[in-house]
Amino acid sequence: MTARESAQEGTAHPSSHGEAAMSIGQLASASDVQAVTIRYYEKQGLLSPTRRAANGYREYGSTQLRRLTFIRRCRRLGFSLDDIRALLGLADQQALPCHQIDARIEAQLAEVQQRQRDLAAMEEELQRLTHCCAGGVIAQCRIVERLSAVAETEE
User: Whose CA is closest to 72, among 37, 107, 116?
Assistant: First the structure.
């Protein structure tokens, strides 16, 4: 049985709170986040272990697994650590209306859409450049010439 399976099935050793305690390796496996990244998130104040075992090792529970899953998914959506910290702060205040979270999601969507437009423009330019080459020598390369040309409109 893998660490992920044992962590998900709760076969990790129980904590003093009665919930299955996971080691950092088990948490890493269950969350699909590397242990070094978990430690980094701890240093950044995004995640903390449930407690330390008698041997000094960190112990984690289902709360940390859910929080780490939230962080991982936010990172995949392109949120910065500061944005994630703010989202976690909002998520921890369950009684608040969700308009602040909605606004952050909409802002991230707008940023992603802008990046898509920028990437489309870069793709167009790269396609134009690929059609410039006649297959000669670099000294006569139209791609190098176009990339080196100083345009008066460029900043």
Answer: 37
